[in-house]
UniProtKB/TrEMBL annotation:
Function: Purine nucleoside phosphorylase involved in purine salvage.
InterPro entries xref list: MTAP, Nucleoside_phosphorylase_d, Nucleoside_phosphorylase_sf
EC numbers, comma separated: 2.4.2.1
Protein name according to UniProt: Purine nucleoside phosphorylase
Pathway named in the protein's UniProt entry: Purine metabolism; purine nucleoside salvage
EC top class, as a word: transferase
Subunit structure: Homohexamer. Dimer of a homotrimer.
Organism: Streptomyces castrisilvae
Length: 277
């Protein structure tokens, strides 16, 4: 099977114009990923793109098969993942067009499977052990560095650090929820950053997210609250420069052999009970 070292989970606007993209269907023990994996090359690095919501954006955040997506990426050789996503700003100074590279995460999702290691027999008969991994620092320090440097290089000063709170969706927050999130000191709110981050950790993958603020969340503005049209409009206005930053971040990531961050050692000495691809 064709191979890649870096995975990007995001919309098709991020890769559709690349030349020589190869589409690969990947089967996983967890069912179908959101879509095929698309293999291409950026600056000499082999990259696997996976449309998080599928082509045509038909899979809502709470129904994404996050386990299958991360497993599929690891199956084609990926060890470092960049997962950009659209978010709402929880502070007036984080208005539309802000790029923020979080260093912390709060999980407020409700129905999503968060682990590969639940002790339950899989459909293929394999039985994972119950495993508890550290997650104090959910994002890769090297990936964050690469993302911040890439943004700076494109004249887009990103906010370095902050907390991404991930809600279940698909609805947006109430005003009270949004004010509460802000009062807790959290920075941005989204629907897709989790359990992507923890599942990456469970597979020993580096994971970094870059969040693009598309709107001020309900509690941070006086108007009608968030609309989906508004989100799409701001995303479309920023997709070109987000893509440039993403591609620069890809080339700035450490070489596979030189990867020396804690993420790659998350499974050292851990008996997962199952073979990883
Ligand atoms: Zn790492």
């Amino acid at each position: 099977m064709s191979n890649a070292e870096i995975g990007v989970i995001g919309g098709s606007g991020l890769y559709s114009f690349l030349e020589d993209v190869t589409e690969v269907r990947v089967e996983t023990p967890y069912g179908e990923p959101s879509d095929s994996v698309f293999l291409g090359e950026i600056g000499g690095r082999r990259v696997a793109f996976l449309p998080r919501h599928g082509r045509g954006h038909h899979v809502p955040p709470h129904r994404i098969n996050y386990r299958a997506n991360l497993w599929a990426l690891r199956s084609v050789g990926v060890r470092q993942v960049l997962g950009p996503c659209a978010v709402g700003g929880l502070r007036p100074e984080y208005g539309p067009g802000t790029l923020l590279v979080p260093d912390q995460l709060v999980d407020r999702t409700k129905t999503r499977v968060q682990t590969y290691y639940d002790g339950e027999t899989r459909a293929d008969g394999a039985v994972p052990n119950v495993v508890h991994l550290g997650f104090a620092d959910p994002y890769c320090p090297e990936g964050r560095k690469a993302a911040l440097a890439a943004a700076r290089g494109r004249g887009w000063e990103a906010v370095d650090g902050g907390t991404l709170v991930v809600v279940e969706g698909p609805r947006f927050s109430t005003r009270a929820e949004s004010r509460w999130h802000a009062a807790m000191g959290w920075s941005v709110v989204g629907m897709t950053g989790h359990p992507e981050a923890v599942l990456a950790r469970e597979l020993g993958l580096c994971y970094t997210t870059m969040t693009l603020v598309t709107d001020l969340d309900a509690g941070a503005e006086a108007g009608e609250g968030v609309s989906h049209e508004e989100v799409l409009k701001v995303f479309a206005a920023n997709v070109d420069r987000l893509r440039s930053v993403l591609f620069d971040a890809v080339t700035a990531l450490p070489a596979q052999a030189g990867r020396d961050c804690p993420c790659g050692h998350a499974l050292d000495g851990v008996d997962t009970g199952i073979a990883l691809p």
